Protein: AI-2E family transporter
Organism: Agathobaculum butyriciproducens
Amino acid sequence: MEDPNQEKKSRFDLQPHYIEWGLTALGVIVACVLVVFVLFRMTMIWGIIKKFFSILSPFIYGFVMAYLLMPVFNMLYRNLQPLMSRKFKNGTRLAKGLCSALTLAFGLAVVGVLLWMVLPQLVTSITSLVDSMDLYMNEISGWVASLLHNNPEIEHSFMRLYDQFSAQIMNWAQNDLLPQLGNMMSGVVTTVNVLMNLLIGVIIALYILNSKDTFCAQAKKMTYSLFTVEKANAIMARVAHIHRVFGGFITGKLMDSSIIGVLCFIGMRLMISFGWMTMPTSYALLIAVIIGVTNIIPFFGPFIGAIPSTILIMVISPVQALYFVIFVLLLQQFDGNILGPKILGNATGLSSFWVMFAILLFGGVMGFAGMVIGVPLFAVLYSMLTEKINHLLKKRGLSVDTNDYRGHKRIDPETHAFVEAQETMPPVSAKERRRAAQQKDQENKNQ
């Protein structure tokens, strides 16, 4: 017997999917409301995000410390694990714990030695600079006066402006800068919070180093449970690529900048010993630290570090500042052409244009940290976009070689082969219109 509802069901099946349309419309409306809410509550949302990261700061410190110390841990573990496994029943676990403790001890020892060597000299340099500011200002005024002695009117105007500027600088340094530094140093609550976060970060770094294999296995397990096998394998490959880019770039850049800082210090001390510079020897360490720290920033780092250092030396002697500029140029040529490529190689695969773009973009968003990690982060995003574009081109049967797209060529829609482009745009200028008319007349005569 025929079902009386069969006709109704068939007619209903032929109707559009109103439920799916309604859910789609509802999703669009909800998304628009969320976008409007985010735009109008951006300050509040940003405050919540900052509070969230402030709470997680010990974990961030710990992860960064563990990530930077991971090569040392791996080297120790490869050498100690076989020996511990042969001698003890739980040799692998003991080897992990011992390697984690030795790695953290090594990191803390390196930081402690650097602070012990650098901080006293930096304090001496800054104190000496502030104390000698009046003397250096007088030397500059005398140098400018001797330079402009043939133009008394210009000299008088310049010296009046210079006296006002130097008075403002001295007033700012004595009344604003020093009290602010004192307030910053006396911020007991902030200092205690930072020290507590660093202490907890050290403990977290110890756990991460000791249990990194377990954490990686758990993350891999969760990935395979949420995605298909093909998608999970692609995610694993992407994570390995990110680790390779970030690890190679950051550790290599830290090593490169440390070597450049040491070479800068040695070069400054040699110039002081040869009499090419008359500055106090404590300034050499201050300038070397500035050059080394700013060298962590790719591309712009040498210029960022050289500008304040040159101004600092110019206060003492313009001729010595010229010597320093020449020395920094030679040092950066050595770094850019010899030392940097040897240590970093082609860790990111980015051209100079995209390196500059990444530094400016992420530096504007994240400050100094963005200028440091912007290049490897952009390299990862760039590689992901490149793979996606190549995947779409392969699906359409098109070439993925960038060189094939150079020049005035188009792709034939039928054969997918590259052919020379035919200009079909109408003439714009009077000269082009006359030329087109002459060609058309010539074609008509030939016909």
